[in-house]
Amino acid sequence: MADTRVVPGLAGKTAVVxxxxxxxxxxxxxxxxxxxxxxxxxxxxxxxxxxxxxRPALDALAAKLGPTVDVLVNAAGILPPNSFIxxxxxEDARRSYEVNVIGTLNTVQAFGEQLKAARGAIVNIxxxxxxxxxxxxxxxxxxxxxxxxxxxxxxxxxAEHGVRANSVCPGFTITAxxxxxxxxxxxxxxxxxxxxxxxxxxxxxxxAAIVFLASPLASGITGVTLPVDAGWTAGEPALPW
Length: 241
Ligand SMILES: NC(=O)c1ccc[n+]([C@@H]2O[C@H](COP(=O)([O-])OP(=O)(O)OC[C@H]3O[C@@H](n4cnc5c(N)ncnc54)[C@H](O)[C@@H]3O)[C@@H](O)[C@H]2O)c1
Hints:
Layout: E1 14-18, H1 23-34, E2 38-42, H2 55-64, E3 71-74, H3 90-110, H4 112-118, E4 121-125, H5 138-157, E5 164-170, H6 185-194, H7 203-214, E6 225-228
Parallel strand pairs: 1-2, 1-3, 3-4, 4-5, 5-6
Helix pairs in contact: 1-7, 2-3, 3-5
The protein binds nicotinamide-adenine-dinucleotide.
């Protein structure tokens, strides 16, 4: 039986995945490798920890790779503690912006020449929070709105180089990031009720959309912000007419 996890057009390609040691990033690494790509991971975890905030380390990695990078997936991200607007600390806001937004810009710039040489594809992970606000997550929400906006700018600026850039907006996905609040049954039931598909998402479902956008199957798509959210942003499913 054919391996259904293979996305066509990626065999022999070179990919860089940030946050590739856990959750959505790790699911992307698995799918890209199953599709025949060679994947380089940028993560704080693992034998060769690199932070996306460390531009010199990213430049050093770029110098070690070949002349082309076909795919860049930016899945590294952090979620600051929940806080309503009045209580957001500047430290939390700065730190999330530094990792989620500047970290994305850093990798795009560090691997930029190689992505242009390959006429490659960038997929940045935003969030459903980029599209619909969630309570007490103002600091995170702002960074994810910025990721979606930055992605559109990359799409416009680098179209002349044949580089495509898209963002994916996951809904509540079962990963280390969400582990703590997904232990709360009351929260999970409320969240499910809010989703037309009435369920949480698996990291592999987010990776499928990311790797599709990174592949030649999506050759005509650039600058989009694609929700993979079990319908969260489609609307309110539970109105009692
Ligand atoms: N899980 C969800 O429900 C959900 C929903 C919407 C968006 N997202 C986004 O998806 C992306 C992946 O999240 P996840 O749920 O897989 O989380 P995760 O915590 O499982 O994985 C995040 C990975 O990023 C790495 N990382 C964190 N800071 C880093 C840094 N400075 N440099 C390099 N690596 C760093 C971590 O070590 C980890 O391996 C994040 O951008 C997150 O904001 C997740």
